[in-house]
User: What shape does this take?
Amino acid sequence: MKGATAKFICGFVLVASLHAETPLIADFRHEGDHLKACGDLKSIFGCVSTLFTDHPLHISAGSIAPGNGLAAGGAFVTHWTPGESWTLNADADAVASVNGSWRAGGYLTAVFTPRRTIVARPGGSPRKSNLAVKESLVMHGYAQSTSLSKLAYFGLGPDTRDTNRSYFGMRETIAGGDVVWPVWKTANISLVGEANERSVDLRAGVDKSSPSIETLYTEATAPGLTRPGSFTQTGEGVRLRPEFAGGYVQLNYLVKFQQYASHGDSQLSFQRLTLDFSHQFVLHLATRPTFGMDSNGPNDCGDDTAAHACPAVSNNREGSIGLRFLMNQSFIPEGHVVPFYFQPTLGGSDINGNASLGSYQDYRFRGANTMLMRASFEHSIYGPLGFLAMFDSGKVAAKRSDLDFSERN
Assistant: This one.
């Protein structure tokens, strides 16, 4: 009887394990349930949201980089919790546009949240409770390759002209990681660090509306044109995100110092200091911050809930006034240059889609040193519709000493 009982128990455990539902399978099942609503015209907006934001699989679409059109493809997102303190989020995506540009990558996010314990205090103790929500340690690992067929180059400095426009193609592969380590929760101060390997490959432009870059520019006027290669890029800094006046004033400050070390040509090595000071004065407390969550990957818009669902479109009133100061300063050893493909740009949008000086063409002004000042006002109208007004003033310069507040672009 003991042997029969043991066989029965083992068989029961085996059957139960075969029918157990893993979190990933559960996510697929939930997404399937959401897609069933697509047959109902009343749920068309919910269906679109599911197709473009749900997990584990959804459609990924958007501008891959200014000038390269709309890119579309697929994305995979999943989450799991290996322990009480750790949460892991994984992303992968691949998109392509009609002009031959593409991007593919994989991303892993690890979030460590220390267990909160209740500490007994003697009666009348003035000490604060340690049950306050703490910022989490977040680590990212990633590997991504991007190939762009159409990037504009007008030359360096503030005196370039529209007629100087040329085109080039570029492929960049980056692999590495970064960390956000909270050190003072009261002021929401964190240390940040990163370590990456970057590889750059340049090619001739294919758009015939302007000449290819090598026909107008040389190594002297486009540093690094004939010297693409690989770099080790590291960085460290401090980030502050305090709130004041009951949440009506939100700051987002970042001071970061980066080092670019060329593997093949030491003359392409340089350092960069970035100062980014953003101020958001919210008009309604329902207004969401302008920055994303560290715990989310590039394809994840989930919130802090266990379901990791993207926030639904809200009809709540949202609005804010924003002020921003951004400055990049390059430290260039004697005899060295900053490759033009690593120099920040102002005008339209940069290679990462960040807007600046919107009345100019994309990538219009390029320099080793840049400065941008912005004032903005935005407010919701209804659902996803809203109003945005923005005023920008900026400057690019070859030397740090020329980066002042006179003769702005």
